[in-house]
Amino acid sequence: MNIRHRETFRSAPESEALAAGARACAYLRVSTGRQAESDLSIPDQRKQIAAFCATKLWSMLAEYVEPGASAMDDSRPEFQKMIERATDDDRPFDVVVVHSFSRFFRDAFGLEMYIRRLAKAGVRLVSITQELGDDPAQVMMR
Question: Residue 82: enclosing H or E segment and its boundaries?
C-alpha cells in the first residue's frame, strides 16, 4: 500500500452520534488535474469514504462526483443536486460524507450556511479527516 494513500480516520463527535445503519451519501470533488492524480483523486476519496462508512456500518446510498470544480462558490451542478436531494421532504440521507471540508466548500461562511441548511433537514456533514463539533464553542470556531 502506498503510504501517501493511507488515511487514519478520526473518530469525530458528530459521526459517533449517528447509529449503525445510517444512510449516507458521498460528495467527491477535485478542482485540478494535479489533485486528480494525487492522493485526493476521485477514486482515492471514494475508497477512503467507503472504508470510513464501512467502519461505522453506514449504508452508502448515493455518490455525487464533481471533477474539475472549484469549491469557492456553490455553482456546482452535482453539489446542488446533492443538497436538494439531501434536504428533500422524504429525508433520503442521514449524513453527507466528504474527505475533508475543503472538498465540500472552501469559504467558511458558505460552509457554515450549508451545514445549517443540512442540519435543518436532519442531515449531518461529516469529514473523514477533520472533526466538526456541535457545541457552542466549536460552532463559534467554525
Answer: helix 77-86
Does residue 136 fall inside a structural domain? no
Domain of 42, in residue numbers? 8-130
Domain assignment present for 99: yes
Residue 35 lies in a domain: yes
- 78, containing H or E segment: helix 77-86
What average pLDDT does the chain have? 82
- The total number of structural domains in the chain stands at 1
- Which uninterrupted H or E stretch holds 115? helix 108-120
Query: pLDDT tens digit string along 59-116?
Result: 999 999 998 888 888 999 999 999 999 999 999 999 999 999 999 998 888 999 999 9
CA 19-65-48 angle, to 5 degrees, is: 50
User: What was the pLDDT predicted at 31?
Assistant: 83
Write the DSSP symbol of residue 46.
H
Residue 84 and residue 97: Cα distance in Å, rounded?
A: 15
Q: What is the CATH number of the domain that holds 105?
A: 3.40.50.1390
